[in-house]
Amino acid sequence: IFSSSPYAANNSDDSDAPDDDGCGGGENRRIPPPPPRRPQHESSAEEAEESTEAIEASLSRCGSEIQISHKTLSNVTDSTRASSVTAVGSAEGDEEEELGREKRRRRRPLFGALCYYTKCCDGRKRRRKASAIVVGGLVVLALLLLCLVVTVGVIVGRGRGHHQSAASTGATETDTTTSSGDASDRLENNGGGSARPVAPSVVLEDAGGEHQEGDGGGGHDTFANPMASPTQVPVTYLPGALTVFKEGVYLSTGLDVRVIARSRQFVNLTDGTQSSERFHNRPDAGATFPIPEDYPELYSKYPGGWVYVSNAESTYDGGVGSIFFDANYNVVDYQKVLKGTEWNCGGGKTPWGTWVSNEEPMSYNRTGFIYEVDPFGRHGPEPRRTVLGEDGGAFESFAYDARDRSNPHFFYTEDHRRGPIRRFTPTNPDWDNPTEMLHRKGTIEYLVLENWDWTGRNGTFHWTDDRDLGEQNALLNFPYTEGIDCTPDGRLFFANKGRALLFELDLDANTWSRSSVQGGAFDGKPDTMARILDDPGDIVYMTEEGGDDAGVHGRDKDNNYYVILESPLYSEETTGLAFSPDGRRMYVAYQKNGVLLEVWREDGLAFSGRIVDIKYHSLNSDRGSGII
């Protein structure tokens, strides 16, 4: 049987036998033969006996092991029972310790309890929960601090957030200022032709100097600036950089302000007393007049002084009021110089130094008239009606062209959809007795625009005595006209709210042009600005009505547009813009709030430029919409 096994050949020493495992290239490895197996049928009796003895010995050893395992199990059971008793005792101790910890946590502050809980508690989940509570508390605290900061910022400054606090030199109250960097940013933002819609208001009036009569120019004086040159006095005035907040208005850098009067209140005088009359309601158009030497009673008391006249656009408290100043800008008196009229809106100065006040009644009929007023009250407050108003109307502003004293012209507007531009020419102008010139015979004519070019922005004009033709032309081209002014070189400006346009008439060439006032008066009109202003640094000052932040605005020769002052507190319309005779004080009123302000430069210099009185009211205002 063994010889027939296939492994038999491998046991030989034949050198020809293969020396690898059949995979090629291996070492000499041979497969050992299996151990020889005894055939099953050859077991003997001795072997059977030996197997029996081996089995009995194995059984004996198993019995001994079983006994040993039983003893071991008993020992393990006793040990487990003892461990259980010990564990119960330990659990009771842990419970008491945990109760003690809970009591201690309750006595700790909230933050301490959280920290203790985070430190002592086991388990990642509890630590994460405690951390989340701490982080959430910090976030809530940060939000509360942020709300507090925002609230304080709103109270201290504007919603825009670009004004900071500072002290104003010579002021009686605390001002707020921003840094020089913010000021320069604000100045850049206000320059270069702002696209903000503005309802302008135009007094071609220079600031400071001696009065010159009979030079034409809308009833507003022309002056030579008496102030020192900027090289001798440091200039601190930066128009358009609103960095000062005082008396409810934001001011350009280098300006200061005080309240002169409030409607329905007595005016505080410099001697500590108060005026005998209350300041009138709804102040409107205004102007200043130097106290003349031919009025010795007043001039002797206040040499170098002046008065500021102001219309009262009110029904029960209409007329004109005058505030008197001495040469040191102190308020010395206030009195009404015109009574018995109502809705005194616009007006203008005459070449001989009186004030013209126009009535604009709040009704569908045209029942207002035009009055001449002595600003010093020498003739009493009784009304003195002129011939300009004809049979009545809703009159607004007044201007004149007196370059030719033998043939002076006086212009005035009417705030009505059919209100024409009128021109009055006295028949026999008497300059020896000029206060009678507007009360005697003369010719009233009406403006007619014609011969438009292909752009519709330029043409020619003429004057007619046909009132119907003048009213029809006004209805088509310039309804609801308000402000009007005239330059010394014979340029007549007027603005109308019906078309939101500014018209410019060349009185010598009989030509006209027009531009929009949506971007502010004189937007895109550098030639016009060059004619109005003398020096490159001069500014045309204007007022506006409508919306929030109404104030005083300016435009220079380079068409840069500036916000000189504005208010987030006072509403709607700024009125009565005027300079003091020396140009060092600017006066402006907020009509609906009844506040009259005086503004001056902290560097002591005069305001360089002109005021342009082309007052313009929004069609959405409660005033303008009532006139049909």
Description of the molecule:
The chain is an alpha+beta fold and 628 residues long. It has 7 helices and 30 strands. The strands form 6 sheets. It has a 9-stranded antiparallel sheet. A hairpin with a 7-residue loop joins strand 16 and strand 17. The radius of gyration is 51 Å and the shape is elongated.
Percent of residues in helices: 10-25%
Main β-sheet, spatial strand arrangement:
15-16-17-18-19-23-22-21-20
Largest sheet: 9 strands, antiparallel
Q: How large is the radius of gyration?
A: 51 Å
Figure out the total of helices.
7
Q: Name the assembly state.
A: single chain
What is the averaged pLDDT score? 73
Q: Termini, distance in Å?
A: 141 Å
Overall 3D geometry?
elongated
> Which stretches of 5+ consecutive residues score pLDDT under 50?
1-32, 34-44, 68-73, 80-88, 156-215, 219-230, 522-532, 615-628
Beta-strand level of the residues, as a percent range? 25-35%
The counted number of beta strands is 30
Structural class: alpha+beta
Keywords:
628 residues; alpha+beta; nine-stranded antiparallel beta sheet; eight-stranded mixed beta sheet; disordered N terminus; disordered C terminus
In brief:
The chain is an alpha+beta fold. The protein is 22% helix and 28% strand.
What is the fold's blueprint, element by element?
Layout: H1 45-107, H2 110-120, H3 124-156, H4 180-190, E1 200-201, E2 205-206, E3 238-246, E4 249-253, E5 255-262, E6 266-268, E7 274-278, E8 283-290, H5 296-299, E9 306-312, E10 319-325, E11 331-338, E12 344-349, E13 355-359, E14 370-373, E15 395-401, E16 409-414, E17 422-426, E18 442-450, E19 458-464, H6 467-477, E20 481-486, E21 491-496, E22 501-506, E23 511-516, H7 526-532, E24 539-544, E25 551-556, E26 561-566, E27 574-579, E28 585-590, E29 595-601, E30 609-611
Parallel strand pairs: 24-30
Antiparallel strand pairs: 1-24, 2-30, 3-4, 4-26, 5-29, 6-7, 8-9, 9-10, 10-11, 12-13, 13-14, 15-16, 16-17, 17-18, 18-19, 19-23, 20-21, 21-22, 22-23, 24-25, 25-26, 27-28, 28-29
